[in-house]
Design brief:
It is built from 13 helices and 13 strands. By secondary structure, it is of the alpha/beta class. It has a seven-stranded parallel sheet with strand order 3-2-1-4-5-6-11, sandwiched between helices. Strand 1, helix 1 and strand 2 form a beta-alpha-beta unit. Bound molecules: NADPH dihydro-nicotinamide-adenine-dinucleotide phosphate and guanosine-5'-diphosphate-rhamnose (GDR). The site of NADPH dihydro-nicotinamide-adenine-dinucleotide phosphate (NDP) has 24 residues, from helix 1 and strand 5.
Length: 336
């Protein structure tokens, strides 16, 4: 039997790397879109998928270029397309609203249009976000909660979500959106608060830093593990009918709790190291996000199982392994 072909945009990112692993395990032929510069500097720019490079088919393309996406889709003829690429950092979206909106909205539109022309039977996944809820009017948030995005990033995801729905309704594409709440891992980018904290703890333990500067410690998020969340993406595309799903743990914790726990993993008190820095506050904050994953649980049979405490520990331990002397790690009582 012929292998099923999957195309992943954003394969070099956190989620792309876990999804590529999952699909290879399931015996897919896995194709990925990466920027040309990444192909020229794989050691740095493709570090998350370095261990998979021999098994992947990578194609140069960018969200800014319709022809590049059109060509890749036409050449690969995927059975499933996971659209994960995006300018994904909310803070940056305040610094450059224009490029965030252009890249994220056009990129999604270009890809949908290319699929409609070249591979209309391909199943499509759009990486929607809990940032679409923004200042949410109900707690927890479900598929029927009204969107009230608080950043151009959130707005770009609402637009992508609506484009996906419209291609489903107008052109019959099997197009689904996941409304994913925050998910983290040792592969998370260093700019996001969880990885900033876990890597900061490691550098403090190694004696390379004396403090960790953060913004709003009171923001609350629903944090899960990326490895589990990519399974939900795959499950969505295995359903007979396309649909939209909230993917979340249903638990919420503050940034302060994350920091407290992360420092405690190595026997330190976060209050001795965390410095509040106004520069890391956002012009418009999302105070509280917590998802209701009931639909994903009943329809997809998906459920988050990795606990918050275990996620924090895994991230801190991985970063400590990267920078700390083994004797120091033993003294800190880490299970490494
Ligand atoms: P990352 O930031 O780790 O990865 C983003 C990916 O997009 C990278 O592969 C990046 O490539 C690629 N990319 C960015 N801009 C372009 C461009 N102009 N052309 C081509 N590729 C581009 O994000 P995550 O893996 O964490 O998230 C995956 C998706 O899910 C994103 O769309 C994000 O917005 C969304 N999401 C994430 C959540 C989370 O908690 N992680 C929650 C909800 C939604 P490069 O390596 O070259 O920069
Ligand atoms: P988020 O993630 O904006 O939720 O978007 P991030 O980790 O950047 O922020 C989470 C919360 O932490 C607060 N915070 C800080 N954030 C950063 N980055 N740096 C700091 O120093 C800091 N101090 C406090 C923030 O104000 C915020 O409240 C992530 C991304 O993956 C998106 O792509 C995705 O769509 C959403 O999650 C769901």
């Amino acid at each position: 039997m012929q292998k099923r072909k999957a195309l992943i945009t954003g394969i070099s990112g956190q989620d792309g790397s876990y999804l590529a692993e999952l699909l290879l395990e399931k015996d897919y032929e896995v194709h990925g879109v990466v920027r040309r510069v990444a192909l020229e500097d794989p050691a740095h720019r493709l570090s998350r998928i370095r261990h998979l490079l021999d098994d992947l088919h990578l194609h140069a393309g960018s969200l800014e270029s319709f022809p590049s996406l059109f060509q890749v889709v036409g050449k690969v003829q995927p059975d499933e397309c996971y659209h994960l690429a995006a300018q994904s950092f909310v803070t940056y979206s305040f610094e450059d609203e224009f490029s965030t909106l252009q890249t994220n909205i056009n990129g999604t539109h270009f890809l949908l249009a290319a699929l409609k022309e070249c591979a209309p039977s391909c199943r499509f996944y759009f990486a929607g976000s809990s940032e679409m809820f923004g200042r949410a009017e109900e707690v927890p948030q479900s598929e029927s909660t009204r969107f009230h995005p608080r950043s151009s990033y959130g707005i770009s995801k609402v637009a992508g979500f609506e484009l996906t729905r419209n291609y489903r309704e107008a052109y019959g594409l099997h197009a689904s959106s996941g409304i994913l709440f925050n998910h983290e891992s040792p592969r998370r980018g260093y700019e996001f608060v969880t990885r900033k904290i876990s890597s900061g703890v490691a550098r403090i333990l190694a004696g390379e830093a004396g403090e960790l500067r953060l913004g709003n410690l009171e923001a609350r998020r629903d944090w899960g593990h990326a490895k589990e969340y990519v399974e939900a993406m795959w499950l969505m595309l295995q359903q007979d009918e396309p649909d939209d799903y909230v993917v979340a743990t249903g638990e919420t914790h503050s940034v302060r709790e994350f920091a407290e726990l992360a420092f405690r993993v190595v026997g330190l008190d976060y209050r001795d190291y965390v410095v509040i820095d106004e520069r890391f506050y956002r012009p418009a904050e999302v105070d509280l996000l917590v998802g209701n994953p009931a639909k994903a649980e009943t329809r997809l049979g998906w459920r988050a199982t990795i606990r918050f405490e275990d996620l924090v520990r895994e991230m801190v331990e991985a970063d400590c392994r990267g920078v700390c002397d083994p004797a120091l790690i033993r003294r800190a009582g880490l299970g490494l």
